């Protein structure tokens, strides 16, 4: 029998909000999951600019929308995998990626 991962009490490594499950390889919140999907699937190479021009913006649930560049870079650094984002029109079920708890 497969062991289930529990996500109770986990925080999103990108914005520190409550996680909703494993998305694109890591535990994230719904907001960061959606942001990452839009950034990858609608643009071949996202071209974002840093709001502070320093690349060190603080991200929280209240400020996560302020700087797309810092948020996208933090998604990549946290381990979100662009290869798991389905492209428009591409069909498929859940990614067959098994993570150890």
Automatic annotation (TrEMBL):
Q: Where in the cell is it found?
A: Nucleus
Spell out the molecular function terms from Gene Ontology: nuclear receptor activity; sequence-specific DNA binding; zinc ion binding
The record, for Pfam families, names: zf-C4
Keywords on record: DNA-binding, Metal-binding, Transcription, Transcription regulation, Zinc, Zinc-finger
Quote a single Gene Ontology cellular component term.
Answer: nucleus
Domain Nuclear receptor per the UniProt entry, residue ranges? 9-87
Q: Which SMART domains match?
A: ZnF_C4
Protein name, as recorded: Nuclear receptor domain-containing protein
What organism is the protein native to?
Manduca sexta (Tobacco hawkmoth)
């Amino acid at each position: 029998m497969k062991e289930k991962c529990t996500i109770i009490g986990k925080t999103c490594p990108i914005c520190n909000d409550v996680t909703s499950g494993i998305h694109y390889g890591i535990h994230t919140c719904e907001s960061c999951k959606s942001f990452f999907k839009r950034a990858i699937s609608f643009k071949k190479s996202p071209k974002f600019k840093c709001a502070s021009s320093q690349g060190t913006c603080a991200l929280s649930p209240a400020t996560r929308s302020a700087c797309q560049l810092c948020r996208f870079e933090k998604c990549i650094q946290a381990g979100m995998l662009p290869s798991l984002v389905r492209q428009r029109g591409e069909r498929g079920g859940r990614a067959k990626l098994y993570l150890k708890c």
